[in-house]
Amino acid sequence: MSAVWIPQVLRSSVGGEKQVELDGATVRELVDGLVGRFPALRSQLLTTEGDLNRFVNVYVNGQDVRYLDGLDTPVAARDEVRLLPAMAGG
Amino acid sequence: MPKSYADLLREARSEIPEITPPQADAIRQRGEATLVDVREDSEWDQGHVPGAVHISKSYIEQQIEAAVPDRDAPIVTYCAGGVRSLFAAQTLREMGYTNVTSMARGFQGWKSEGLAWTSPVTLSNEQKQRYSRHLLIPEVGSEGQAKLLDSKVLLIGAGGLGSPAALYLAAAGVGTLGIIDFDVVDVSNLQRQVIHGTDRIGEKKVESARRTIQNLNPDVKVVGHEEMLVADNVERIIYGYDVILDGTDTFETRYLLNDAAVAANIPVVHASVFRFEGQLTVFQPYDGPCYRCLYPTPPPPELAPGCSVAGVLGVVPGIMGLLQANEVLKLLLGIGETLAGRLVLFDALDATFTELKLKRDPNCPVCSDAAVAARKAGRPLEVATVGADQPFVLGSVAGFGAPEARA
User: Fold this and answer.
1) Taking Cα atoms as reference points, which of A25, A5, A53 lies closest to residue B303?
2) Its pTM surpasses 0.80
């Protein structure tokens, strides 16, 4: 199981949870599991082609998966996965 | 047996090795010794060797251990003409410092050799008192304070982030604070925008901020820009500033500012907030990623509500704004490690800070080599824009309530 940290702006789509435990060997499997459980997240995380939206970053252990293997980045148990959307508030 | 001055000087000369100013400069440039200037404050203020530590001879016993804790570290003392530095070196020897030399002919000899020295820093007596806590820190000191007084910082917005940042930057003596904001103070701002006050409701934010800053520190010149940052004025407004603090609340402005600041090579200290969370980083053009490297395209409105829609705990922009001010001061002073290439997330509910690594996007349409070449050729690369037909204001998204009338 890996923990996916949900930022505040997305929490209303996951029932208010700040962290969701999911099974998966890659970022794609985790994201698929996440949107499977919380369909409201799909359009927020993924394009219609199933790629990550460019306004949402995914980090595995503090590293941006865009500079690793994208959605195919492997995830081990106890890795820390974070979703990071842009925020504009000031 | 009483000793004359000549006797004492002869003894000191026989005990302390001396080096010439060019030799001392070579050692200084290689960073092989601490140069200790033992002259009086007024002499130091008129110019000194770059990087030297100032401990006047009358304080040498009291202060040298803090400045040079290692008794075996090489020290070169100097004064104006090479006499007081010999006696100071003798004192250091008595205290157990094993590797002390004195620079012959002193600072006069240094200058006559045409070696580099720092231009005099002149702080008034009032400024010496006002900034005394800065002057006590070796990393700031009078040179650093003079740098701050000579610096220009542009604040984008005098709101939740800009208010605390402006207060502390003004207090720190940043000489010029530009503030761009076209808004007026509303009572709902006062829960976090602490530069304003109840008596300022209805007043232009720029004017309100100017009044608070002038009362806090008359050294600071406030340059007000009562306009909205748009493509037509952004280059003109940011021109000449050393650092920009991004405290705006729309994606339009954040992207617009990023693109212009990268082109003008001005660092942007960025923060944004949402309810109990904050994000913070430094966009240092070409040394680290820019905003478009981090977020290549803006999100759709429902994913990006501003504070006026989603709300924010007042202290969150306070904390993030002061962390921004901290980054600004480090950039101006050239000290410490900035957050370039690192994003800090703050979670107020958990009281945690999390650090993420950021990278430059080699295909960035704004800061990549190809983008720079295209700009130079007069054909900038196309970027994702946030047009007027796509304003980042929520209509009626469940859970976020109604937006304020203001865009």
Assistant:
1) A53
2) no
Question: Do A73 and A27 contact (CB within 8 A), yes or no?
Answer: yes
Dist CA A4 CA A57 (whole Å): 13
pLDDT for res B387: 44
Q: How confident is the model at residue B396 (pLDDT cuts 50, 70, 90)?
A: very low
Percent of chain B with pLDDT over 90: 83
Chain A: closest CA distance from residue B98 (Å): 47
Higher pLDDT, B282 or B303: B282
Local confidence band at B118 (pLDDT 50, 70, 90 cut-offs): confident
Residue B380 has pLDDT above 90, yes or no: no
Chain B nearest-CA residue for A82: B356
Give phi and psi for B207, each to the nearest 5.
-70, -40
Please list the alpha-helical segments (H only) found in chain A: 8-11, 27-37, 42-45
| Cα angle A54-A55-A58, degrees, rounded to a multiple of 5 | 80
**B153 near B174, Cβ under 8 Å?**
yes
For the question of an ipTM over 0.95, the answer is no
Q: Number of H helices and number of E strands within chain A?
A: 3, 5
B363-396: burial string, b at 16+ Cβ within 10 Å, e else = ebbbbbeebbeeeeeeeeeebeebeeeeebbbee
A12, A64, A89: residue with CB nearest B399: A12
| Residue that has been written with the tokens 């940052």 in this structure | B229
pLDDT for res B13 = 96
User: Rounded to an integer, what distance in angstroms lies between the CA atom of residue B176 and that of residue B253?
Assistant: 22
Q: Taking a contact as any Cβ pair under 8 Å apart, which residues of chain B between 230 and 269 contact chain A?
A: 246-251, 254
Separation CA B342–CA B84 (nearest Å): 48
Where would I find the beta strands (DSSP E) of B110-257? Answer: 152-156, 176-180, 221-225, 243-246
Across B136-140, average pLDDT: 92
- The alpha carbon dihedral of B399, B404, B405, B407 has a sign of negative
Question: CB distance from B357 to chain A under 8 Å?
Answer: yes
Q: What is the dihedral of CA A63, A64, A67, A70, to 10 degrees?
A: 120
Q: Which helix (H) or strand (E) holds B167?
A: helix B162-171
Of A55, A57, A63, the CB nearest to B303: A55
Separation between Cα atoms, residue B205 and residue B141, nearest integer Å: 33
What digits encode the pLDDT tens for the residues B119-135? 767 899 999 999 999 99
CA distance to partner chain A, nearest, from residue B270 (Å): 10
Rounded Cα–Cα distance for residues B75 and B363 (Å) = 50
Taking only the tens place, the pLDDT of each residue in A31-90 is 999 999 999 899 889 988 988 888 899 999 999 999 999 999 999 988 999 999 888 888
